[in-house]
Every structure is written in structure tokens, then in C-alpha cells.
Amino acid sequence: MNKLYPVFEAAIMLHISESTLYRWIHQRKIEYVKIGSRVLFTDEILNNYIKKNTITSE
């Protein structure tokens, strides 16, 4: 079972503010898990987001 991270922990892991993460959620720029009214993130979601937004030098 993957650990589920609340918004404040996910924001820390991504080195962004909570308000930025909420904006990305609203704009559907990042996937999330919704359980009731809680917005949560798995390691897989966060790692995939980082991979998708990694720019490699050639």
C-alpha cells in the first residue's frame, strides 16, 4: 500500500507552497487522490510529476 501524503507534505516534497499546489490541483496540472473532502498524493503521483517535468541536457 502506498503512503498517502496530504497537501502540506506534498508541497514540502515538491519544494513549492501549498497555495501553488492547490492552484495546480484546481488547474488539473497534477494528479491526486480524493477521499471524502481530503486531497492526497502517493509517492507514484509525485515521482511521475517530477519525471514529466524534468528537463534533461543533451
List the defining traits of the structure above.
58 residues, alpha+beta
Q: How would you briefly describe this protein structure?
A:
The chain is an alpha+beta fold and 58 residues long. The protein has helices at 7-14, 18-26, 43-52, and strands at 4-6, 33-35, 38-42. It has one domain (4-52).
Explained architecture:
The chain is an alpha+beta fold and 58 residues long. The chain has one domain. It is 47% helix and 19% strand. It contains three helices and three strands. Strands 1-3-2 form a three-stranded antiparallel sheet. A hairpin with a 2-residue loop joins β2 (33-35) and β3 (38-42). The longest helix has 10 residues, at 43-52. The termini are far apart. 7% of the residues are buried.
Mean pLDDT: 95
Order of strands across the main sheet: 1-3-2
Number of strands: 3
**Shape assignment:** globular
How are helices and strands ordered from N to C? EHHEEH
How are the secondary structure elements laid out?
Layout: E1 4-6, H1 7-14, H2 18-26, E2 33-35, E3 38-42, H3 43-52
